[in-house]
Amino acid sequence: MRVPLSWLRCYVDLPTDSAREAADALLRVGLEVERVESVGADVAGVLVGEVLAIEEFVAGNGKTIRSCQVDAGAGARGIVCGARNFAVGDRVPVALPGAVLPGGFTITARKTYGHVSDGMICSARELGIGEDHTGILVLPDAPPLGADVVELLGLRDDVLDIAVTPDRGYCLSVRGLAREAAAAFGVPFRDPALIDVPAADGSAYDVRVEDAQACDRYVARTVTGLDPTAPSPMWLQRRLVLAGMRPISLAVDVTNHVLLDLGQPLHAFDRARLAGPIVVRRAGAGEQITTLDGAARLLEPGDLVIADDTGPVALAGVMGGATSEVGPATTDLVIESAHFEPTVVARTSRRLKLASEASRRFERGVDPDLAPAAAQAAVRLLVQLSGATDPGGATDVDRRPGRPPIVLPLALPGRVAGRPYPPEAVRRRLAEVGCAVEGTDPLTVTPPSWRPDLGQAADLVEEVVRLEGYDAIPTVLPLAPAGRGLTREQRLRRQASRALAAAGYVEVLGHPFLSARVWDDLGLPADDPWRHTARLANPLADTEPELRTVLLPGLLATLARNVGRGQPDVALFETGLVYRPRLDAPAAPAEVTTAGRPEPDVLAALAAALPDQPRHAAVVVTGMREPAGWWGPARPALWTDAVEAARVVATAVSAPLTVRAGQRAPWHPGRCAELIVGDRVVGFAGELHPRAIAALGLPLRTAAMELDLGPVLASAPEVVSAPVVSAFPVATQDVALVLDAAVPVAEVAAALDAGAGDLLESLRLFDVYTGDQVPPGHRSLAYSLRFRAPDRTLTVAETTAARDAAVAEAARRTGAVLRAS
Q1: In the chain, at which end, N or C, are there fewer CB atoms within 10 A of the end residue's CB?
Q2: Which of these CATH numbers, 3.30.56.10, 3.30.565.10, 3.40.50.10350, 2.30.30.140, describes 406-472?
């Protein structure tokens, strides 16, 4: 909402001339002032001049041009002008050489069409008053010769550009903002809506309201004898331009002025083009209307329309229709000033993608008490400015429901804000926003009609707190009770995330929605459990109506987006919830009350209908895992990096994780590992299948890992013992075992670990060999075993015995034999 300070001062005496101070005061009461704009400050040297003589000549291009003699108080000057709407004796704005027009345009004497033009005669658009640039601005009432046009027309002003939140629709008007400014400065407020209105006798125009819930008030007034050629005065056009509207015609400008001034949208019908009574009703199936923007629109039964005997003539609260539009020949008007239900207007506006200044206000709530005053204000302006006649009488269909009062304990604002508020301050602040306050403690508060957002005690508390000043609320850090910090699961999750970040992965947060097509791109079979998703009844986008069952689709889309933007080396991770619907889940209750907390059985039924929501961790990696440098060449990301990411997570929480060969789409069948905790498969890691990579537009060799964090964290020990650090030297023994190639490496390592006993500190696989020196279908696994004792230096005999025991256990479990050197 753009509001000129000069307009605001009509209703409140601001104690400052500084626009910045006014903006700061409005900020203190909770309004967001986005910008303070000084308009007309750069205009200078424009004076009132009188046209003394006019000589016409035809230029070389065939255009008729006027050479004028104009006196601006210092003698006649020759000025060339192409406009023809002024005559000798008219007073016009003249910009002499050296004058500056809006935008910093400096006027100079120049030769044009063979004549010297010693200045410029200005149009309304050139002065920033309106949009008309087809003719010169002829000044009415013969102002003094040589007077400053800037002062005469009030071209200098300060404009506040205010972002109005949806719950404060009353601030989309000068009236509402003036009320806030009065409260901010503690000065009186003059309400422009307090005007005398004629008694409602139904004589203005016949109106029938068939849907009182969607339209609880409809006021109609008539104006006759309107002069359709009467222009809008300069002050009216100037106000509209500063507020961001374009002057059009007197009738339209007056209704727009009332809308900006009071916040009540109006609509003017050409009375001669209405057939029969005005009817407020829902649209019929298949009905159409051509709106003022020239578009033909198909209506639905939920749309609220204003109709006559011929059909819809306006979309209620949104836009008028072309069939009853006020035109150049209109002399009789019917003024509509109504109150429409916000959701009805919002639904029609959004469905038709048709937003207007009227719908913007109705969606946020308009004062239902304002309709008669707004209609009277429009009628009064039309009578004053166009010589029209007010026939008298008014039609007012009023079916407004009453508003129940709100009970407010006096101490509640202080308890919420954390600072005491005197009782007189609470009463004063509520009165300033227009509330009727009765009682002592608790207070009985009746909100004003222009504040539909005040519906409960918490809303009243917010009004008291914001007007008393948010900056007056003390800043006090809450004390955390002992033993109530992060839960064990939260700590473990953070440990896992920090470990992945330390390993070079960047955390991302993807949205949980996906398209069913992604499963085909990943190559999942039709019966894959990942395809069993929960479908949203009202998705944000029709292309992604399902909830994710794994993290990979969103993570791979993020990877593709980064690669597409020129980032070839990417390593990402995400932890988050996935959604697994249960096949045996009951249907959710059809109706759940919002009046209070549902009953325990209803909450239990809701919980039973929800899908399971385990937390997963996933990584994707492509490109170079390690960059090139003085230390050596770059290393590309491999499928083993995805496996190692799973080990990083398990190690961070000290959980036992076993890795063995596996197979699952969308991973490459020869480069896929199962991730196992206990006897449960909790995830997979490896290189993605080439078909999935091609379908998703990913780089070759892209690798990924995903695991269920629940069982991993559950297997983590409650207390992790610190390792014993021995001061004695380590003894290393290497063994090479030949065994069937189908035996998992993890089984061999487990056997060696069990056989070596307590002296084994660590073991590491450092070589895998298949070739002529091992039988077909076999492979050689070479391990390095590190032995150390906490209390002595081990002898060769001890380490050899431990090694032989490890080999013997591996032979017993896996059939391995020691490879000959």
Answers
A1: C
A2: 3.30.56.10
Give pLDDT, residue 492. Answer: 95
Sorted by sequence, the CB contacts under 8 Å of residue 677 that are 6+ apart come out as 650, 655, 656, 657, 658, 711, 712, 715
pLDDT of residue 233: 85
Phi and psi of 161, rounded to 5°? -100, 110
Tokens of 77: 């000057």
Cis previous bond, 372, omega within 30: no
Predicted local distance difference test score (pLDDT) of residue 56: 86
Do 119 and 97 meet the contact criterion of CB atoms below 8 Å apart? Answer: yes
Distance in angstroms (rounded) separating the CA atoms of residues 301 and 284: 5
What's the confidence (pLDDT) of residue 175?
A: 94
Cis omega (within 30 of 0) for bond into 188: no
CA distance 686 to 695: 18
- 676-677-682 Cα angle (round to 5): 55
Residue 735 pairs in a beta bridge with 783
Contact indicator for 451, 369 with CB cutoff of 8 Å? no
The predicted pLDDT at position 778 comes to 93
For residue 224, the number of C-alpha atoms closer than 13 Å in the C-beta half-sphere is 7
Neighbours of 549 (CB within 10 A): 25
How far apart are alpha carbons 817 and 219 in whole angstroms?
100
pLDDT in tens, 701-743: 999 999 999 999 999 998 877 878 889 999 999 999 999 998 9
Fold of 488-589+600-714: BirA Bifunctional Protein; domain 2 (3.30.930)
- Provide the pLDDT for residue 444: 93
Which residues partner with 741 through β-bridges? none
Find out if CATH 3.40.50.620 is the number for domain 731-818. Answer: no
> What residue spans of 577-705 are helical by DSSP H?
600-609, 639-652, 690-696
Fold match between domain 207-398 and domain 488-589+600-714: no
Could you list the beta-strand ranges (E) of 341-439.
395-398, 406-408, 436-438
List, for residues 460-506, the tens digit of each pLDDT value. 999 899 888 888 888 888 777 777 778 899 999 999 999 999 999 99
Give me the residues paired with residue 282 across strands. 304
Q: Which CATH number does 207-398 carry? A: 3.50.40.10
Q: Which residues of the chain have pLDDT under 50?
A: none
Structural domain boundaries of the chain? Answer: 2-40+158-185, 44-155, 207-398, 406-472, 488-589+600-714, 731-818
Q: What is the CATH number of domain 44-155?
A: 2.40.50.140
Q: Whole-angstrom Cα distance, residue 370 to residue 449?
A: 9
The pTM score is 0.63
Per-residue tokens: 655: 């959980």
Distance of CA 803 to the CA centre of its chain: 66
